[in-house]
Specification:
The structure holds two protein chains of two kinds.
Chain A lengths: L3 E4 L2 E4 L4 E8 L5 E7 L6 E7 L2 E5 L6 E7 L2 E7 L7 E8 L12 E2 L3 E5 L1
Parallel strand pairs in A: 2-11
Antiparallel strand pairs in A: 1-3, 3-8, 4-5, 4-9, 5-6, 7-8, 9-10, 9-11
Chain B lengths: L3 E4 L2 E5 L4 E7 L5 E7 L6 E6 L5 E4 L2 E5 L5 E6 L8 E8 L8 E2 L3 E6 L1
Parallel strand pairs in B: 2-11
Antiparallel strand pairs in B: 1-3, 3-8, 4-5, 4-9, 6-7, 7-8, 9-10, 9-11
Classes of the chains: A mainly beta, B mainly beta.
Chain lengths: ~120, ~110
């Protein structure tokens, strides 16, 4: 199974709402990622988890809160978002970097298209 | 910070014509990966290049990694309508952080 699943596919939320995005993979990958992608732009890294621990936070505002409850699941909790946070949120997974620090290929989920009103 | 520049931003070709997209990094890369994102889809891994001067082929697609490991290219021979999408290169710098630095992408349109 080489699939990364994400729910929901679409989400519309107000600026005062709290919502969560979910991501799941069963490939045994121990590195998981959250990316944000605006239209006609490349994916922009937000967070990296390695062995269920947060290893990279790309200075993301605290209104985004990641969580990795186990090796298969990754959540992104959203609170008090702004309209400019509207984007496609992509989850990805990969094997953890090799001993010679080689980054393996990433498998992306279909994304959650988020609209903040 | 480390940047990966990708050109062109857009390319329109007639079906059957060739297509090439280029990536250039400001610093040496430990490896480079290529992804394809179809309209409305998500990035899908195509290939990884690790060695200096490496060339890999996948059917009509040819990928190259420069001798200095600072540039890479993707060449598609005889494009088909199924090649439509945005092609991203993504480089890993030498800082061993595990981060991929994505180029801006090249969007390919193919006229039948």
């Amino acid at each position: 199974d080489t699939e990364v699943t994400q729910t929901p596919k679409h989400l519309v939320m107000g600026m005062t709402n709290k919502k969560s995005l979910k991501c799941e993979q069963h490939m045994g990958h121990r590195a998981m990622y959250w990316y944000k992608q605006k239209a006609k732009k490349p994916p922009e890294l937000m967070f990296v988890y390695s062995y269920e621990k947060l290893s990279i936070n790309e200075s993301v505002p605290s209104r985004f809160s990641p969580e990795c409850p186990n090796s298969s699941l990754l959540n992104l909790h959203l609170h008090a978002l702004q309209p400019e946070d509207s984007a496609l949120y992509l989850c990805a997974s990969s094997q953890v970097m090799s001993r010679d620090f080689l980054q393996y290929e990433q498998y992306f989920g279909p994304g959650t298209r988020l609209t903040v009103t | 910070g480390q940047q990966v520049m990708q050109i062109p931003q857009y390319q329109h070709v007639q079906e059957g014509e060739d297509f090439t997209t280029y990536c250039n990094s400001s610093t040496t890369l430990s490896n480079i990966q290529w992804y394809k994102q179809r309209p409305g889809g998500h990035p899908v891994f195509l290939i990884q290049l690790v060695k200096s001067g490496e060339v890999k082929k996948q059917k009509r697609l040819t990928f190259q990694f420069g001798e200095a490991k600072k540039n890479s290219s993707l060449h598609i021979t005889a494009t088909q309508t199924t090649d439509v999408g945005t092609y991203f290169c993504a480089g890993q710098g030498s800082s061993n952080t595990g981060k991929l630095i994505f180029g801006q992408g090249t969007t390919l349109q193919v006229k039948p």
